[in-house]
Amino acid sequence: MAVTKRMGMQRLLYLTLLTIIGLTSVACGDRDSSDTLVIGPDEPVRIRTLLSHGEAWSSGDAARIGVEMAIHDFHRVHGHEIKLGPPLDSMCSPEGGRTGAEQIVAEERVIGVVGTSCSAAAVAASPVISAANLVMISPSNTSPVLTSDLQGNAGSDHHPGYFRIAHNDLHQGQAVAGFAYDELGLRRMATMHDGDPYTTALAGAFADAFTKRGAEVPVVEPIEKEQTEMTEVLARFAEAGLDGIFFPLFEREAAHFIRQLRGYDGLQGVALISGDGAFGPDFLALPQAEGVYFAGPESHVGTHLNGATGRTAADVLAEFESNYGELAHATPYWAHAYDATTLLLAAIQRVAVRDDGNALTRFLGIDEHGTLRISRSGLRHAVRTVSSDFTGLTGVLSCDRFGDCAQGVQVIYHHTDASVTDPGALPTVHRFTP
Are 288 and 258 in contact (CB under 8 A)? Predict the structure, then answer.
């Protein structure tokens, strides 16, 4: 009894001493240096999301679920719980992206971010995240300005620490141009954008690739975000004598455009192609959308397996459908979010240095999971290293030095029936591989 009591007193003494040391460490910032984050024995590994949510952004909601499922399947990092924290809404805007990034940086204990949903938000969020020496991996940003021109030159808004699982829109521009020219036989097309980094870059990428084939793009029409009246745009298109229009808009503007285009004099029979910004259930449900071609990533490829969790896209999609119903078909980018999360966690696991304490603390049952030391700059390198042999639900990933991780595969879908609103259920008519 006396021995047991004495051991209890010793344990209490050591616990008190370690608590004092721990408090001192926290007071000093709980870091070995400004580059290293120290995660205590019972502290979780903290990551955050910065996506677009709400009624108009079901794709962001679906992506958040993809993140949550990935965390559940990855389970732990060196025995430490993974804590996601409440969602932050980037609102698909520069203001929302900047505000959300600043909130994340202020938390200090966060080591990585999954986001953003939209390129416009990333342009403002990326410099904030980068300056804080953090990593951000996007499931669905596609603008070339965020990474590179694929010729070895950094984009105007590229910042270290930024990565993405989605394709670079220079690939989508090539895919649309090749399909329009070679498969549809189009030679004179117009395009349009709303000033957003995504729509502007994609319209430009298409125009460049199409004219390089000897075709013409006589009109590149700018509109305003949330513009509802398209009469003047349609008049200019009709005057140009077109045989095709590429309109890479988001769903809301694309819906106004397609409704007013149908039946407009001079545009009957013009081939219509859109991008993945409008490729969602609401737009597909419009009767006027029948006949439109869409360019985007492969959807719901069931045989792809995520190497970090061992689960296939078919398995994860079935669970998604069972728990969340139709939201699983709002966008293919939920799978990109799953892959972005597992790539981030795998990189954290690889770069983290575990300290299991000394023999005495292990004997006393202290420091059971060990202290983790994570180099922030090392994590950026680890993302690239891990991705070199990483397979995901979306396919093989390999991040280049500018943050492009996807292979750039694009599929052209043909929408012929407004009763079919699942993007993954549309027939494919063309496949582009860089």
Answer: yes
Q: Which two tokens stand for residue 293?
A: 């071609």
| Residue 273, token pair as written in the block | 């192609």
Give the span between the Cα atoms of 325 and 24, in whole angstroms. 49
How far is residue 96's CA from residue 391's CA, in Å, rounded to a whole number? 32
Secondary structure (3-state) at 28: coil
Q: Report yes or no: 57 and 65 within 8 Å, Cβ to Cβ.
A: no
pLDDT attached to residue 23: 38
CA distance 302 to 296: 17
Closest CA to 118 of 87, 97, 144, 148: 97
The DSSP-derived string for 191-234 is EEE-S-HHHHHHHHHHHHHHHTTT-B---EEE--TT----HHHH
The strand pair at 305-306 and 293-296 is best described as unpaired
Relative orientation angle of helices 333-351 and 313-324, to the nearest 10 degrees: 120
- Whether the link from the prior residue into 361 is cis, omega within 30° of 0, is no
HSE value, Cβ hemisphere, 13 Å, CA-based, for 209: 22
Q: Which residues in the chain come in under a pLDDT of 50?
A: 1-33, 55-57, 359-367
β-bridge partners, 311: 306
Residue 409: HSE in the Cβ half-sphere, 13 Å Cα cutoff: 11
The strand order across the sheet containing 36-39 reads 36-39, 371-375, 353-355
The two structure tokens encoding residue 158: 């590229």
How far is the CA of 64 from the CAs of 86, 235, 318, 338, in angstroms?
A: 10, 41, 17, 9
Residue with tokens 């399909």: 179
Cβ 311 vs Cβ 339: under 8 Å:
no
Give CA–CA dist 416/292, Å, rounded.
Answer: 7
Long-range pairs for 314-322: beta carbons < 8 A, 24 or more residues apart: 316/69, 316/73, 316/393, 319/69, 320/65, 320/66, 320/69
Cα dihedral sign, 154-157-160-161: negative
pLDDT of residue 366: 47
Q: How many beta carbons lie within 10 A of that of residue 387, not counting itself?
A: 22
The position carrying tokens 């080591």 is 111
**If DSSP codes are grouped into helix, strand and coil, which group holds residue 250?**
coil
